[in-house]
Specification:
CATH architecture of the largest domain: Orthogonal Bundle
Structural class: mainly alpha
Keywords: DNA-binding, Repressor, Transcription, Transcription regulation
CATH topology of the largest domain: Globin-like
Pfam families: MerR_1, TipAS
Largest sheet: 3 strands, antiparallel
Strand content: under 5%
Helix content: 55-70%
Protein name: HTH-type transcriptional regulator SkgA
CATH class of the largest domain: Mainly Alpha
GO molecular function: DNA binding; DNA-binding transcription factor activity
Shape: globular
Number of helices: 12
InterPro entries: DNA-bd_dom_put_sf, MerR-type_HTH_dom, MerR_fam, TipA-like_antibiotic-bd, TipAS_dom
Number of strands: 3
Length: about 250
């Protein structure tokens, strides 16, 4: 039994455009291509796609994924390693939950943040893998941009990574402060903060207006991203989204 590219896209949640890209780079060739040019996939290709998606979730680059899948490495051993990394990621996320929860509690006590005796607590649990600027939609819709971002991250030193983590956290808190103060998203101060966000994204990939709006939409549409924003302040994901749309129309169109 075979499946068309549309059926595979529907089952897997991967866009047809991404599946065609995977074929073009030799990562996931279809089982056959019909005379009309339509791609068709068999069970072996579906299993390979499952492996690709699993490794993508773990932050593995496309070149690395192809190297693993094309090698003769024992798949069970590979899955065990993936399982280990997933458990480590779960522990990291648990730490992030505690970090943000502690910050919220301290902000409620004193909105000037003067009660935070150990500023380093703000950054506990953040790692290179917690990049919020580079999102799932960019990975699926703009694979080349995603690969560009991966290359940028791999070129960062430990000091660069630590500084970037602090900047991301500070930027989210500043946006939350604008929102809580009731400032409209087109306010110059808010737009200046969005410019900081955009320039931060450009360290990894350079989105045009459409791509930047797509990134904004992911912040509110993807439950994982929305939850991360709203842990800082309820409604922050929507506020960030709306501010980014204004910025894209004014500065990127």
């Amino acid at each position: 039994m075979g499946w068309s590219i549309a059926e595979v896209a529907r089952m897997s949640g991967v866009t047809s455009r991404t599946l065609r890209h995977y074929d073009e780079i030799g990562l996931l060739p279809p089982a056959r291509i019909a005379s009309n040019g339509h791609r068709h996939y068999e069970r072996a290709e579906l299993l390979r796609l499952q492996q690709i998606l699993l490794m993508r979730e773990l932050g593995v680059g496309l070149r690395e994924i192809r190297a693993v899948l094309d090698s003769q490495v024992d798949r069970v051993s590979v899955l065990r390693e993936h399982h280990r990394r997933l458990l480590a990621e779960r522990d990291r996320l648990d730490t992030l939950v505690r970090t943000v929860g502690r910050t919220i509690a301290e902000l409620q006590e004193d909105d000037t943040m003067s009660t935070i005796n150990r500023p380093e607590n703000l950054f506990e649990g953040f790692t290179e893998q917690s990049r919020t600027e580079v999102d799932a939609e960019a990975r699926e819709r703009w694979p080349a941009a995603w690969e560009e971002s991966r290359a940028a991250v791999e070129g960062m030193t430990a000091e660069d990574s630590e500084q970037w983590q602090r900047e991301v956290t500070a930027q989210l808190i500043r946006m939350a402060e604008h929102m809580v103060a009731g400032e409209p998203v087109d306010d110059p101060a808010v737009q200046a903060e969005v410019d900081v966000h955009y320039r931060g994204v450009c360290r990894f990939w350079t989105p045009n207006a459409v791509a930047y709006k797509g990134l904004a939409r992911t912040y509110v549409d993807d439950p994982r991203f929305r939850e991360n924003f709203d842990r800082i302040a309820e409604g922050l994901a929507q506020y960030q989204h709306d501010a980014m749309l204004v910025y894209a129309d004014a500065r990127l169109s």
